[in-house]
Amino acid sequence: MCCYSGCTDCEYREPGGGYRMADQSSARPKWIPCYDQREFLTQGKEHTTKWSSEIFVDTMVVTKEEFVERVINMEFKPPLGGPFLAASAAGIEDESAAATLFDVLAGEKEKLTRHRMGKEMKVLSGGEEGITWAMFSAALGAK
């Protein structure tokens, strides 16, 4: 792992400066991916998003009630880039934010599909591959 101190013999340093990293993984999430699953063939890796595996458990569609219940029961991991909140203090007592997120993603529909969730998240991200904290809070109307 690179310490980013500019060591002259560092295997992660490019000859002209800069850094190359063998693995772009992170111990803490940086964003919410818009895709549900992705394979990185050149690295021999694959990634299934937490939202697709924990919200859409053995199904491709959820109701608002199922969505809210599954979101509030997801394990919290403090993200990079957002306000810090310890996992021990991250319990969701007010379900309104999860319900609002469902409404934003599902629109006027009574159910939300895995495909639609990924598609709508891509819209909310402005076409990016993931939603950052700023994008997420703006989508929910936070200022």
Short recap of the structure:
This protein is α+β, with helices and mostly antiparallel strands.
- Biggest sheet, strands in spatial order? 1-2
Amount of beta strand: 15-25%
* Global outline: elongated
**Poorly predicted parts:** none
Helix content: 25-40%
- The number of distinct helices, counting runs of at least 4 residues, comes to 5
What is the structural class?
alpha+beta
The count of strands amounts to 8
- Which value, in Å, is the CA radius of gyration? 18 Å
Keywords:
143 residues; alpha+beta; two-stranded antiparallel ribbon; 5 helices; 30% helix; elongated
Secondary-structure topology with pairs:
Elements: E1 13-14, E2 17-19, E3 32-33, E4 37-40, E5 45-48, H1 50-54, E6 61-63, H2 64-72, H3 96-106, E7 111-113, H4 114-124, E8 130-131, H5 133-139
Antiparallel strand pairs: 1-2, 3-8, 4-5, 6-7
Helix pairs in contact: 2-3
What can you see in these coordinates?
This protein is α+β, with helices and mostly antiparallel strands and about 140 residues long. The chain has five helices and eight strands. It has helices spanning about 50-55, 65-70, 95-105, 115-125, 135-140, and strands at about 15, 15-20, 30-35, 35-40, 45-50, 60-65, 110-115, 130. A two-stranded antiparallel ribbon has the order 1-2. It has a two-stranded antiparallel sheet with strand order 3-8. The longest helix is centred in the C-terminal third of the chain and has 11 residues, at about 95-105. It is elongated and about 60 Å long. The mean pLDDT is about 85.
